[in-house]
Amino acid sequence: MHPQLQLLVALQDMMGMIREIEEQGSELEDMGFKTEGLEKLKEAQAELEAKIDPQLMGQFRRLTKKFGRAVVPVIGNSCTGCFAQIPTSFVSKTNAGRLQRCESCGRILYWP
Ligand SMILES: [Zn+2]
Predict the structure, then answer these.
(1) Tens digit of pLDDT for each residue in 60-77?
(2) Which of 53, 59, 62, 85 is the most buried (most CB within 10 A)?
(3) What is the pLDDT of residues 80-102, one digit of tens each?
(4) Which domains, from first to last, does the chain contain?
(5) The overall pTM is greater than 0.90
């Protein structure tokens, strides 16, 4: 997988975890986990973000705001964000080091 793409997928997972913790109620707060755990995750998030190309990071943020998930897997030649067909030629282009976005919804694609 494209190294930047790998970072984006990891970042997206991390953001999901952070969101989950933030949405969880007082139960975690009582255990003192919430604040401490969140801080660590946010530090790790910042580290990841620093490794990602700023332009790509901008795209990622815009897409995340719009869709919730900016990076989606292609399964059975379909974008799992909008279910549009993805040309098979996209796979080889991505393997060659280029990031591909869904032509229909614009999400960044990866092949799991
Ligand atoms: Zn799509």
Answers:
(1) 999 999 999 999 999 999
(2) 59
(3) 999 999 988 887 766 667 789 99
(4) 3-110 (1.10.287.1490)
(5) no
Shortest CA distance to 39 belongs to which of 26, 55, 21, 53? 21
- Centre of ligand 1 to C-alpha 71, Å, is 10
Label residue 22 exposed, middle or buried (CB < 10 Å: 0-12, 13-18, 19+).
exposed
How far is ligand 1, taken at its centre, from the CA of residue 99, in Å?
14
Q: What sections of the chain are H helices per DSSP?
A: 3-23, 26-30, 33-51, 54-67, 89-95
> Rounded CA gap, 19 and 38, in Å?
9
Q: From ligand 1's centre to the CA of 109, what distance in Å?
A: 8
Inter-residue contact 70 to 8 (CB < 8 Å): yes
CA of 63 to the centre of ligand 1 (A): 11
CA of 83 to the centre of ligand 1 (A): 6
Who's near 25: CB < 8 A, 6+ residues apart? none
